[in-house]
C-alpha cells in the first residue's frame, strides 16, 4: 500500500507499507535513492513483519527538502513519522545516509527496539566524494526521454560494478518526471543531495553512539566500487564497534551499491536471524 503521510510539521512523506506482522520494521534508503531502492529487503522482511519504506524529503514523491538540508532534518522527519503513526518497539534499517539517520534516531528515541546498519553511519572520508559524484551527475542533466535517462543511469551503475536489472529500471522510472517542453529530469535536486552528503562529515559519532543501547547489526560492504575501493573501509566502522555495546557485525563481498541493488541472500538470512533473536530474547543479542 502506497500513500502520503502528513507529519506534525506539515510536510508529507510518500510511504509504502507491506506485511502484517506485529513487529514493525522501517527501511530508510540511501543518498540519491527512494523507497524502491529497498525492495529486496522489504520483499523478504514482509513475510514476517510489518515493513514500512518511505521517500526521504527531496526524493521520490515526498515533499521537498528544507534549505539548507542535512541529516538532522531527516532525523526530525523520522521521529515525527514514528509519532504520527504511533509506532513503538520498531526496528530501524538504514542504508548509506539512512544509516546515519537511523543511528541518531535510535540514540534519541525510546521507540526503537533494534537497529540495522547497511553500510552506513561509518566515519566519512573525502575519498568517498570521487565514488559518489558519478551518481550525482545524473541529477544535473536534462534528458530527451525516460529511455534516455535509463540508458545513462544503466551505464553509470555498470561502471560502479552493479548488474542492471528490471528493479533498477523501475527505480529509474520512478525517480524521474517530465518538466517543461517534454524534458525529463531527476526529481531530486543535485544541490540538495550534495548538502546531505556534506553533512556526513558533521556527524558526531562520539556524541551519538554512546546513547545507542539497543541490539545493533552492522553490515559492512567490503566489495570495491568499480576498479576503486569500498565506500567505507573496514576501519571506518571502528568507532561503532568500539562504542556500541550490543553490536553484531557481518562482512559481505557486495559493494555499497550492489548491497541494495542485487539480492544479498547471506545478508537477508543474517537479518532474519537477528530479528528473530531480538523478538524472542533481546537480552541474548
From TrEMBL:
Which superkingdom is the protein from?
Bacteria
Q: Please name the Pfam families in this protein's record.
A: Abhydrolase_1 (PF00561)
**Ranges for the AB hydrolase-1 domain?**
24-176
> Which InterPro entries would you find in this protein's record?
AB_hydrolase_1 (IPR000073), AB_hydrolase_fold (IPR029058), AB_hydrolase_sf (IPR050266)
- UniProt xrefs under Gene3D superfamilies: alpha/beta hydrolase
List the PANTHER family.
MONOACYLGLYCEROL LIPASE (PTHR43798)
What's this protein's name? Answer: AB hydrolase-1 domain-containing protein
Amino acid at each position: 500500500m502506497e500513500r502520503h503521510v502528513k507529519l506534525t510539521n506539515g510536510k508529507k512523506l510518500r510511504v509504502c507499507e507491506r506485511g502484517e506482522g506485529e513487529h514493525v520494521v522501517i527501511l530508510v534508503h540511501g543518498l540519491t535513492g527512494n523507497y524502491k531502492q529497498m525492495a529486496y529487503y522489504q520483499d523478504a522482511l514482509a513475510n514476517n513483519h510489518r515493513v514500512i519504506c518511505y521517500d526521504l524529503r527531496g526524493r521520490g514523491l515526498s515533499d521537498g527538502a528544507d534549505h539548507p538540508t542535512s541529516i538532522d532534518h531527516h532525523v526530525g522527519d523520522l521521529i515525527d513519522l514514528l509519532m504520527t503513526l504511533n509506532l513503538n518497539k520498531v526496528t530501524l534499517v538504514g542504508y548509506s545516509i539512512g544509516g546515519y539517520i537511523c543511528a541518531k534516531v535510535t540514540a534519541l528515541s525510546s521507540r526503537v527496539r533494534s537497529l540495522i546498519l547497511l553500510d552506513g553511519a561509518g566515519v566519512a572520508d573525502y575519498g568517498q566524494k570521487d565514488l559518489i559524484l558519478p551518481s550525482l551527475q545524473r541529477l544535473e542533466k536534462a534528458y530527451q526521454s525516460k529511455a534516455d535517462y535509463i540508458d545513462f543511469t544503466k551505464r553509470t551503475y555498470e561502471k560502479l560494478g552493479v548488474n542492471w536489472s528490471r528493479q533498477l529500471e523501475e527505480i529509474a522510472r520512478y525517480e524521474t518526471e517530465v518538466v517543461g517542453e517534454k524534458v525529463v529530469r531527476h526529481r531530486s535536486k543535485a544541490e540538495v543531495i550534495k548538502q546531505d552528503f556534506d553533512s556526513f562529515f558533521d556527524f558526531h559519532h562520539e556524541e551519538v553512539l554512546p546513547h545507542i543501547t539497543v541490539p545493533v547489526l552492522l553490515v559492512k560492504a567490503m566489495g570495491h566500487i568499480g576498479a576503486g575501493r569500498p565506500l567505507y573501509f573496514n576501519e571506518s566502522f571502528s568507532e561503532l564497534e568500539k562504542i556500541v555495546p550490543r553490536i553484531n557485525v557481518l562482512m559481505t563481498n557486495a559493494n555499497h551499491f550492489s548491497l541494495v541493488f542485487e539480492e544479498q541472500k547471506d545478508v537477508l538470512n543474517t537479518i532474519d536471524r537477528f530479528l528473530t533473536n531480538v523478538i524472542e530474547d533481546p537480552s541474548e543479542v
